Protein 1
Amino acid sequence: MSIQDVKIASKKGNAIVMGCIAFSTGIASFLAGVITIAIPIMAKELNIPENLVLWPVTVYSLACGCTLLACGSVSDVIGSRRMFLSGCFLQCFMTMACGLSKNTAQIIAFRSFSGIAASFCLPSAVSLINEVFPPGKERNITFAMMGGAQPFGFGIGMVLGGVFTGTIGWQWGFHLAAIINFFMFILAAWQLPPTPVAHKRQIWSRLATDIDWLGLILASGFLAMLSYVISALTGDLTVMKQPVNITLLVLSFVFLAAFVLWVGRQERLGRPALIPNSLWQHKGFSCICFNVFCVWAAFNAFEQYANFFFQDVQGNSPLGTALRFLPAPVSGALANIGVGLLVHRIRGDWIVVLTSIVSALASLLMAIIDPSWSYWRCAFVAQFFNPVGADGMFTVANLLITSMFPPGEQGVAGGVFNTVSQTGKSVGMALTLLIAQQVTANSSHADKTSPEALMVGYRAAFWFCVALIVASLLVSVWGLRRIGKVGLKKD
């Protein structure tokens, strides 16, 4: 084989790896889009109680968010390839199981396990990017593809979810995802670079000594309890008064305080610390995590309330609503390509600021929209603009965060990013629900379920999304101005 043939084969292999990694984030968003459209029908067919109707949506993020750091740490020890393939296989199996669910308990349980399977894939995918692609253009494009797969997958999921729900059944959204997942698993097993062979005793020894297990327990416990309370709030705000939820909320902050003290002690003694406290003293790291939290909270809430607006206020069918989301995957793909090609040429803070302004305009347009207006007058532009901020933030944030962790801890780095983004999604959904419901309840409309009353609350939710992105913008201008260009090729 000639050198030219080797280069061509290498490029094909890298392209397949890029596709597999992008799919690991795209599949979750695809299914989120399917569920967003199908949940009213799913609730009827599976007899989901009113207070649990949003749990098939939120429990995925809950399970994923509280296991990401653990899976990232284990990935650094046993190898990212093994972890990624295990996650792909579990995700395929659990996705198919979701489509076969016959009652409330089954769909919630299988969505939970799907979230855990995703936590196998997401941190290890970040590790694989850093292992396969050297710093430079290919790594930047891969991170951009991974980020763009989220709005693209969500948009396609909503469209196909609307089609399936109105024809052959919502179950086929899960079946299709499982089938594609299986083929991606085969491709990944064929093309991903092999993990260096290590003796079993060495692996067990590293698992025992190289991972901050107590830090993991404290961090995961904090995230699990906080995420549970937040998920419960999205179903019924009155549950916050229940003693069990108050107790869990207090305990979650006790775990957080204990985690901060513990990792500080580990760092002082020179022992493994899950997320060293010194990292938070780095202005760039703290600011980018805050920005990821805010942008993902706004992005997720925007998509959910745009769906409510199209269906509950304008009275569109699920399929008609899904078609109105089509601009999002298109702009997501375009933003991906642009950011991936330009991230090493333009300062990272400029990318974050400019793309965030575009997303802020999307929420602003939906906050001032008149339901009687044509789709093309306002909603189309809002749908087209919304994914841009998340795409720009995803690429810059991943490149910045992974550069701050040593090569042997890239799984933890991926876990940190995805934990912050998943928590942002959950918190954003809970807070916008609280705001929308309270504003609607206090409105002057007698019928609180009328489109007019609902729209008052939805406007408040979109204004809150604007506030989140503006807060992110202010922090970016202050805290990211010295990060310079990210994703530069190293000589």
Protein 2
Amino acid sequence: MDGESKDIKQNKLQKLKELFPELFAENQLDWEKLKAAFGDDINFVNERYVLNWAGKSDAFRVLQQPTTATLKPAPEESVNFDTTENLFIEGENLEVLKVFQKAYYGKVKVVCIDPPYNTGSDSFIYPDRFSEKKEDYLKRIGDKDEEGFLMKEGLFRKNSKDSGHYHSNWLSMMYPRLFLAKNLLRDDGVIFVHIDDNEVHNLRMVMNEIFGEENFVACFIWKRRQNVDSRSKNGASVDHEYLLCYRKTDRGLIRGAEKDLTKYSNPDNDSRGNWMSADMTGLATQDQRPNLHYDLEDPKTGIIYKCPPTGWRYEPKRMKELIKNNEILFPSKQDGRPRRKKFLNDLESDFTGFSTILETVFNTQGTRELRTLFDEKEYFDFPKPKELLQQVLEQGSSNNQHDIILDFFGGSATTAHAVLELNKEDGCNRKFILVQMPEPCDENSEAYKAGYKTIADIGKERIRRVINKIQGNTVDGHSRENGNPEGLFKDKELDSRLQTAGMTKKYSNDNKLDLGFKVFKLSSSSFKIWRGAEIDSAEKLVEQLDAFTDPIRPGAEKQNMLYELMLKAGYELTSSVQHIPLSKSKEAIGYYSINNNELIIALDALNEKLIKQIIADKPQKVITLDSLFTGNDQLKTNTVLQMRDAGVDFKTI
């Protein structure tokens, strides 16, 4: 195994090579052959419609560069770690998205994000120098203070409107993240992006480029303000924001609004069931559709009804069939308008179009929801209302029990809150993945004073309180078992504070709702990384070779290695994991079975007996540490041959 995330550039080239092998020579794409193959369809002229900005090529370079980072588990901060399929990831979202490329490629149903709006006062992570090296970037996103918390100064850049790269910086931040997010979507997946007037025009063009104009679904307009803004300097009260919705392919559809079925009844006891009266006037003038313009006669009464100005919806032949089938409702007076019986059983779908105007929930509700959960304290500015997210997620997700909802700008965890509440309401079991940078809270803020050192801390605690509330263990999210309802935690007191608040206990799951979440944190690899680019002399080569005598970094923990190898082998963090000992002895060596032996990982030790047991379990793939062979070349050679004969994909690291 190479220990790196999926190489985006190589992946695209491989797909192109599979379709057009003749365009490659010596494993390189031949531009002349490409041009010859497609002729005029390939445009090499600079004068064409295209979105460009300072740093776009660097944004491509950033997204194409694989990562060696990983995610390490934090069971002590999780709820129901061993059973839940929900995830909360602490870490810089670009690196996390890269880490996800192998394990979650094509598995996410809905991406829903609320990125920085680029108002001129936003701070976000982007290279302030377009020539910034990967190593410098990684160092900057990993800089920590003496207590182990990320340092805000130097990490985030304020993107002022006075900057010459004001829009470019935002685009360079968004482009690689949206590109990588598209990879994670299923073919029937959709993405919703919150935005306002500052960047909606640029976002639309970026989304068109990444997803394709043909995959634009809608631009939803959210009326976020209930009352007009009297502070406006230009006289206009900007009361709305946007949600841009795109699909990955033409298989991606939103659900639509439920039709009002209360209008259907059966007053005449029609054997065909409930029906409603429907208009059947047409939409065309007589010049446009003369065959739809005719007078209509009731065969029972002989009353003749004049043709409406826009004609009828049906031609005479079809209208006669409807009359014969008693599907036309004739009024008792001549000046009335005949209508059609529309039967409930004939409905092809219980849904109609979902309005692009969202005006039933306002931003003040989001603030109230968070205050209710946190003892009437305001720890986060302008959280989105849970109900707004529920409407969006209901549109994007299906009734599939395994739909994954991804939000990589997690913020105060409104998305997780919405998923949990929506599952409770409709009985589905959507899974959420939230990614949030452990962005430091201002030391003068109420959140920091209450013990929340990072935005991620606020998000995790919100999810715990929502789970408690759904379980009925709380009043407005506060544990009944805890005399102090705050349920907060500080620094090294984390474990004891969580225990006191009743957050570490196993929640009952009688209604089969997934009321838990696993916490993982972005981390450097547990394995040493080969630095080939740094080797410029024989001495450095020898130095690297000596360092790789043992590929494991000092202090690496077995559980961290396990999840890293799972991820890099393409297995989800929520895959089932079982440790299989070779004997009942507590000191017995063993191996880890992933998803009932789809993958086996051996990290303890290796001997012939263990290898035979692994092969007997008939795994598809086996991964182990090369160092476990302890220099026994014969054992390693025999293992390779035995695995090959058994049809097992065998890898060492």
Protein 3
Amino acid sequence: MLDIEESLLGKAPRIATWPAWVRGALVAGLRRLVHEREVNAFLARYGRLGWLEFIDQVFDYFRFGYTLSSRDRDNIPATGRVVIVANHPLGALDGLALLRMVAELRPDVRILASDLLLQIAPLREVILPVDNLTRKGFRRSLERMIGALEEDRAVIVFPAGEVSRAGPAGVRDGKWLSGFLHAARRTNAPILPVHVGGRNSSRFYSLSSMRGPLGTLMLPSEMFRQRDRQIPLRVGGLIPLARFNRDDLTTPVKLKLLRKHVYRLGRGRKGVFVSETGIARPENRQRLREELREARCLGETADGKRILLFDSRPDSAVMREIGRLREITFRRVGEGTGNKRDLDDFDNHYRHLILWDDQDLEIAGAYRLGEVGEILDRLGVSGLYSSTIFQLEPAPWSQWRHGLELGRSFVQPRYWGRRSLDYLWVGLGAYLREHPEVRWLFGPVTIPNLMPPLAKELLVGYYQHYHGDGDTRIRPRAPFRLSRAGQQEVERLLRGDDAKEDFRRLRHALHAMGAGVPALYKQYIDVVEPGGARFLAFGVDAGFGYCTDGLVVVDVTRLKPEKRARYIGEMAGRDAGRNVAAAEPAVSVSSALGD
């Protein structure tokens, strides 16, 4: 229940020393101003409801609502961590409206709000309480927000920290605070801008302009003035943190631009920051299972996940779900297409290695496989995805056709740290066991966009020096070039004659920058004997978030014995070696790809 006197003394304990008649008059006036009796009568009747039902009852009581277009609704991500920032024109009702809007798609939503609202029992579950009166209280609030984002929740924030006021430019938020940016950076959470329409009474703006605290005290009364009203909500596209974190802008400037972005949404205009569309909704689980029953099973993991080989088809729920999960996964590391799903024309003629969790009805991860010989016969070199990033024409295709192009590999975030990538490699080994003619594995390997620029340069410098192939004629269409400072740092860091020692130094340097060596960069080198894997070139993929890709090629015949045993099998490995030897003469990586 709402107790104004208790809240007042909790926030301003010195009032307890005032004369009783003064304190009593103040409390009585505040009780009338905040409608304490009406609020408590409402709480007595509906205080045992869940938070979502409680909000619906509030809206029914005030005959209040909001409007939202289906297009804007699609911009709300159905899963994954996200910071939702909005202007704050009304008070409690706009916060409840945002909670209700987001909850239609995801009940995991939370909102940063005043700790006074914890007195409303149904809302305690969704409120991350804010106490801005002390530095320690603010720090605790920030840690709560970070914790919620680390649980992959959606968190609503009003960066102004108070209700909008009237000014020369109209009703606008005051200065936005930067705490939410710190939480977003800590958790790599994208930002979803929302504009909330509506306004309070002229009396509110007049009094708050003269005495700000008085305006705040009037907010409960203003809520009762919102009867029979609907406010428009406008949801913009997601702003990836990588695009928001421009080094040439200070934090105050970024906050001003983001606030401007929100108000431009309210006027139906294009925002300031480049944004992405909302990710598509999940596909029906039973339909996924039905389609995958027709896929070829290559094996099963110890914990019951199935490794399947799937071919694309028209109107495929499986392909739509793969595209959705790719986009979710790649956006988490600063990449992605910016579309609802990451799908392209290559998916139609490539095969798809899928790790299927039949218990949870989830695609845990997938690999895209391009059978080079068949693709060359049907579509030529342009049928290979790598040709969009690298100029492949000089390659000797008589040898290259015994290859398998790999790409678009992902493990969705829900399964990170559960050996899913290793399971995909077991699936790849099962494919190689059935196709012993495959000699080469190749494809673009991405460096996450979230890595600092210098970290990317150090990584590329190391792999070019120790695992590059300077003789190849394959060239990137948009080369990744080291800056002069980056080249100097590479030369300072690497000794140049000890790959293991320099790798240790590389990892230490990346760790100091909050980064690490991408898993596939380590994996492709670790599975083969020295010289069995080479990075031929590094290019920038403009169609995939301007990420940096290294074109790797792996000689299957040079797999380490223990890796062959793990992924392909002892007997299968010996059989595969005999079949490959009969199919083509032994050649080096360089000769197969450019000499």
Protein 4
Amino acid sequence: MREATVAPIKKKIEDVEVDEPDVRLTDWRAVCIAGLLTFLSSLEGTVVGMSEWPYMHTIDPEATSQFFGAVTSFSKAGHAIFALIFSYWSYKSQQIRWPLVAGRVIAFIACCIYLCVEFLPTGRRYLMMLCYFLFGVAGSSTCILRFYLVSVSSHADRARAFSAIVMANMLSIIIGPMVQLSFSGIKYPGVAFFSEHIRFHIYSAPIWIASLTNFVSVAIIFASLKELEKKQKTKKPSVFTLQGFKDRLQKLMAIDLHWSLISVCWLMKIIAQLAIVTLSTTAAPLMMASFGWDGSMTVQIMAVSMGTVGLLSIGLAVAWMVGGLGKLISPRVAFLISLLISVALYVLSYPYPQIGHSMPQYNETTRSGCNPAEYSWCDTEMSTTPFIFMPVVIVVMGIGLPLASISLDTIYSKVLGNIDQSLMQGAIIVAEDLILIVGPIYSASIFTAYGQDKLWLINAVITAAGTVLWLTVFKRVKAYS
């Protein structure tokens, strides 16, 4: 079903700006296909992410939380670099099918290596690092679906189109934990398949399922994904030549864009991701060290929590997309609310001495509890209670994250206007990946050296400063809300 909408855009003719109506029709079928492909890609990342640290900590005792932070950063570095490569490939070839197929092939290879990691007698954490790098590369291919949505949606429908992508990501957070929980009864080391080193257990079972999603994705790409109409090509020097780079830079700078607001959007993307990066890096080590949970218990609790996160996120996305929430709350206000939710995370789940408890002793058998050989603060720091920590995390990830994503993506695409947004959409992904690269090392290092309280305090100050910055441009972004 297509829906015609009209929105004013600006076009330069002989250095004179005139207004033209945007009569582009929103192709809702294409939006749904893009959402489905996003879901299948995200599902793979979700089922891998819940057991990353518990599995690595189980099969390689030498793996530390600081090493896990480095692994996460390495994966995000691959994502950042290849986001640009896939974006440029799609931009240059004016197609999206083959970049998406390449991403799915890389993901399948990563799944195969992941299932064979126990063939190594030692140093398994390094092979897992390679797997996570490949998963990051594969996931970056879906970044081109962002500017695909811009191309198939009208200016007025942009928010609803982007909420479809967010909904797909959140749906994967519901289905992923369900897949993980369905295998929770198969404790490690599980059942051997084909070889003593290829096993089916709580950590590996979801990967067997996730690997099949790549075949489904490729089938959908070739059968249902509509390529965009190719524009007439002109002879230009390659962007990898000095002249080509200069030409493109001059062309980009000549466009009448609001660079100050664009820069603020990049910075806000980084700040909005800080809480998520911190939680994804330290949540599992924190649960095992502070709450005394073993790997299996940690995975099960995370699965239930992430399932709840998915339900909240889906509800929010549906309310925004079809329930009128997007009209009731403007994107600029929605993003402000998301920042305040992140600040609340650090305030409410801080390990206050009055309500906290001491760290549980380390158990060599289950590798749970606070290990003084890894954390020097085991005997001095306090831990927050899981009855406060888990609900707050669920609210932040289930409401704060999707609210920030929908609202900021909408504002950013409208600030860019009616231009070819492929490279600029790639730019904000790279801005996001900067915190995804640096953040895990930063979070893991602070957590390992000083504990949760210092990390929470620093993050609270950074997020509060970002909130103040957003308030300074609050009136300026009203025109794009």
